[in-house]
Design goal:
By secondary structure, the protein is mainly beta. The chain has one helix and eleven strands, in the order ββαβββββββββ. The radius of gyration is 17 Å and the shape is elongated.
Length: 126
């Protein structure tokens, strides 16, 4: 199955749909099908890969657009990547993975933490 993300005029993903590989033989065929299906000839669609995260295809295939698109993600044309929303203003975009990273690494002790934006630290969940 092929997955496609619909973009608004600001390149924000508004929905993700699945199209049969028999129909979406390539990206342009899938886009044409969706424009006709929804009767929206000017809509903007980009193919996304369910198996792509952090610029890696989890099944060993070719990664597509850095990350699987989700509602609210941004499609960055210059990076040809889907980027998740930035949840915290202090986090920076990793150019390789197109994921947001905290200024302090997540603790590697097997415990669960939440990010504290005010203190710029990870707070233990008790």
């Amino acid at each position: 199955m092929a997955h496609f993300a619909k973009l608004d005029n600001n390149n924000i993903v508004t929905q993700v749909v699945v199209v049969s590989n028999n129909v979406a033989t390539d990206e342009s065929a899938g886009i044409s099908f969706l424009k006709n299906l929804y009767n929206e000839p000017n809509s903007i669609w980009k193919q996304t890969s369910y198996n792509t995260r952090d610029g890696v295809h989890t099944l060993g295939g070719t990664p597509l657009r850095k990350n699987y698109a989700g509602k609210g993600y941004t499609y960055d044309e210059s990076r040809n990547a889907f980027i998740p929303p930035q949840n915290h203003s202090s986090w920076t975009l990793n150019e390789t993975t197109c994921q947001w990273e905290a200024p302090v690494a997540y603790p590697d002790d097997g415990k669960r933490y939440n990010w504290n934006e005010d203190n710029q630290s990870w707070d233990l969940i008790e």
